[in-house]
Structure formats: structure tokens, C-alpha cells
Amino acid sequence: MNEASAWRVELAREVAAVYAKHPQVRMVSLGGSAARNLADAYSDMDMAVYWAAIDHKWLEGTALQPSGGRRFTYRPLFDNLVVVEQYFVGEAKIDVAHFAMAWWEQSVDDVLERASMDDEKQEVLDGFLSAIVLYGEDEYERWRTHIAAYPAALGRAMIERNMHFYPQWVLEQQGLARNDLLGFYATLCEMMRNLLGVLAGLNGMYLSMEKPKRSADLLRRMAIAPADAVARFEALLAGDRAAAPADLAALIDETLALVEQHAPGVSTARAREVQRLQVHPVEQKPAFPM
């Protein structure tokens, strides 16, 4: 484990011990970049505390203050079933999300039983699977096993919701040719995000489409993906922008082929039709008989 991740895990264990003293706390974990050994000097610590019932009076008393924690955010959400705290301990920023088990159980059921694609819930479930357990290991592992059974209906829904891509000429003619770089990159990023959504569905991975993070790590963890996906994704943004439309079109074509191979019940016909769509320059008003 790299040094930036290692000391964050150590500090998280110390923080977890503070919350674990409360009798209503069932589980504590550390997620995010530190849990995946990707932390750097600017990484936050993303912790989660799961409660039988959240003790708001106890939480409002700034639990980490005696250990030098300086809280700058305390925000109850979802009818007080979730609370978000943000602290500084020294210069380290710690985000602590508190979840009542009632909210957690409902969220898991919404995603697994009803194929909810709610971004908040997708992000929480993804973080749960990759987190380091700091307290309540036995219960945590039972939940982890349950969540790891990614439902086929959710995979199909993720593919179908995100399988929307503009044809190549949109980037070339409505972006680059007009020197509309803001529009060009906005459209490019939209389609890259949709590609990630389709691939997440194919791979059975929970993903928040609102704020996908660390796409390179995400792609590396995907067993089903276009060849050299990480390098090709990075080149779309960091490489020659004139080559990006054709390069993106190739990634789209290969991703649709993967859908046809691994999710044959999902039709790619409309996506293929849009990719073939061509437009031609129009210099004069066409006839429109009345």
C-alpha cells in the first residue's frame, strides 16, 4: 500500500474507534481512494458509519473534537436518516457519512430488487464493496456478499439508459469546425460518461453517473471492455483533439459489439442507426410544397 493510503487507513482506524464506542453503531468503514490504494497528498478520507438508530444529540456534540478534529460541516439528510460530517484533523480532511440501517436497507432493496439507478445509492453501494472494514466485520461481510450479487435487471437498465451516442459528425462539424471547444468537450465527456455507464452495466458494477471518478481505475477493473480502454479514454481528452471524434466512434462501435456479445437481450439497433446517420451541408432553402 502506498504511503498516502497507508497512513489514512491508520488514522481511519483511530477515528473509527471513537464512533464504535457508541452502542448504536453497527459498522464503520473507510472507502474512497485510500481503500483502493490510490490516495495522494490531496485525497480526502471517506468514512461511513452505520447505525441501528442515529443518535443525533451525541453526533451534534462533535465526537472528534477531543482528538483535535475541527468540524466544518454537519448536515442531516433524508428525514434525518443520513448525516454528513466533514472534519479537519491537522490538515487531513475527513468526510464521515452516517447511515441509519433503515435507510441503508431500503437503499439496498431499491437497487437490488427494483433496479434503481439513483446516483446516490449507486455510489454508496459501490463504495461499500471496495471499503476497508474497521468495525463490525461479520455483519459487514454478510452485507458485502448480498450486494455483490449484481442483479441482471439493473445491468440491462444501466446499458439501455446510457446507450445514447451522437454520430461522429456532431463533434467534427458542430464542435471542431465551429471552434466551439466548450461544446466539443461537453459533448465528448457526455458520451465518454455514457460509455462508462454501458460498460458498468455489462460488468455488473455499481456506478454513479452523476459523478464518476477515477475512470482509469474503473476501466482497469472491468473484465469486459474495449482493448486498451484506459489509454484510449485518456487520449480522447489529452491527445490530438482532431483525432478524438474518430477514436470515440471506434470505442462506441466496439462497446456496442460487446453489448451484442454479452447482453444479447438488449437491442443495439437504434444506437447503430444513429451512428450511421449522415448529414450534408445545406446552402439553399429546400422546396416545401404547400
TrEMBL record:
Location of the DUF4037 domain: 132-209
Pfam families given in the database record: DUF4037
Entries under InterPro entries matching the protein: DUF4037, NT_sf
Name the record gives this protein: DUF4037 domain-containing protein
Protein's organism: Kouleothrix aurantiaca
